Amino acid sequence: MGTKRNAYEKHEYKIAEKKVWIYPSAEADKPVIYLNTYSEEGDRVYEALCERGCPAFTLVAVSGLDWDHDMAPWDIPPISENDTPCTAARTNTCGF
After folding, report:
1. 3-state secondary structure of 61
2. CB burial class (10 A; 0-12, 13-18, 19+) of residue 70?
3. pLDDT tens for each residue of 22-51
């Protein structure tokens, strides 16, 4: 069973026009969860996981994504008349 965490550490960065928040685990060698967010909901997701007693983990939340570009695995034409095409980024999302 996981440990309930009341207060948490959080680091914020701006990398390649993306906002990145890291919520590090207090314990070494724990899993890392990468979360692509739409409206900067990293705090809410982290708190919800902790409230449920999840085992120790580090959360990395990334926001500021262009969903039709950064999240497309390949180029995709519009799927409807008013849609925009998806263009695959073909590079690492955070540029490192």
Report:
1. strand
2. buried
3. 999 999 999 999 999 988 899 999 999 999
Is there a contact between 95 and 15 (Cβ–Cβ < 8 Å)? yes
- Amino acid at site 3: T
Residues 62-81: pLDDT tens digits? 998 888 888 888 898 999 99
Residues 6+ positions from 77 with CB-CB distance below 8 Å: 85
Strands (E), 1-96: 11-15, 18-23, 32-36, 58-63
Cα Rg of the chain (Å, integer): 16
The answer to whether the pTM exceeds 0.85 is: no
d(CA 76, CA 61): 26
